[in-house]
Hints:
The chain is α/β, with parallel strands linked by helices.
Amino acid sequence: MTDTEHTENDEDTTETRYDVVVLGAGPVGENVADRTRAAGLSTAVVESELVGGECSYWACMPSKALLRPAIARADARRVPGLRHLVEGPLNAADVLAHRDYEAADWKDDGQVAWLESVGAVFHRGHGKLAGPRRVVVDAPDGGRHVLTARHAVVVSTGSRAVLPDLPGLDEVRPWTSREATSARQVPGRLIVVGGGVVAVEMATAWRALGSEVTVLVRGKGLLPRMEPFAGELVAEALTEAGADVRTGTSVTSVTRENGTVVALTDTGDRLEADEILFATGRAPRTDDIGLDTVGLEPGTWLPVDDSLRVTGSDWLYAVGDANHRALLTHQGKYQARIAGAAIAARAAGVPLLESDPWGAHAATADHRAVPQVVFTDPEAASVGLCLAEAEQAGHRVRAVDVEFSSVAGAGLYADGYRGRARMVVDLDREILRGVTFVGPAVGELIHSATIAVAGEVPVDRLWHAVPSFPTISEIWLRLLEAYRG
């Protein structure tokens, strides 16, 4: 059945039956709705905040709007004949205004209109499970809507920033990723706690906008989930840009005194700033969605199979951050396409081809070819396994490293271009297990690497994929030459 069934229980409660109910209307939930509607299934989408989710308003879009001027200026300064034109500071007011535009001024009218244009029914309010296939939505106007699903309920509620357990932290009013991407003015001094993607991107953006930035990293270096040289090159660039990067340092206490943030560290330092950003991890937004009513632990990541169906269930799915496979918008949207196809197939009684790992119903790339770009200066981009991960997985591999200085196109792109590339080659199968690029504009190279890793393209065949001269992509030829020796 693809129609909806509607009943009135009382003046404040309605009950409607759909084929699919989606909890969460970020990019991932939107894509699930798009796919299930395209398959002819009636679909309801529930969202308590803004349609478009974290990515549109507090992550991908506003952060990249803040970073783009910083990267463009850095690139221009490396081009002869241009650098003298960009020596002054960025116009912070213009940058923040453009950030507001890219975040749609935190209004979701356009996103709601798009959702309704594909035929999905939007319910604004807090939705939570109330037993199998049943979702209760408490609307802002006090009304209550009961939604039941014939085929599937999909959890796409995303994740939230985690703050450390420090006494009095609430009174300090620290920044998380949300405040860091939506701040209305440039702080004179900013402490960034953390060494991951959010930390390095926001340190890059706010330093370029004029903040005095101190980065405190508990571990040995930045970007710990990438090849070590990625974090090293980004740390060097941040330091050259005027940021103070301190590794092996943890915050032991933080207070706000007369408007000033005072942070004490385990190395005995006392740091003062106007704001402090904690970029120290994420947690699933599953604590208040009624998981206990279906036998699951509230506040946990939801394990799923490759069709994105929650382990042990035949109707509950989890896509995007909620399943903890890859906390990346593009990967969540990929999962949404897989889940939508799987739900539609099961609703139609079509058997899923479990033996086909690259079929329409299997999120195989989650395991083998997850790409990511860190929009710092230099950019860091990777896909697949780093060397340590490949070795830990038991593969017999060899890492091949090449400096971008060997590529003519890199020197033309930027005077004094600095960067490095690595490919991790499986010596038994002669395919690539992973690729990492660090350098200006390498984010535009990563899709070629993703195709090579996801498609398991043999190294011998990559020799026949000829890079155009003189482009930065000639790094592929240098990597292959280094491998052959």
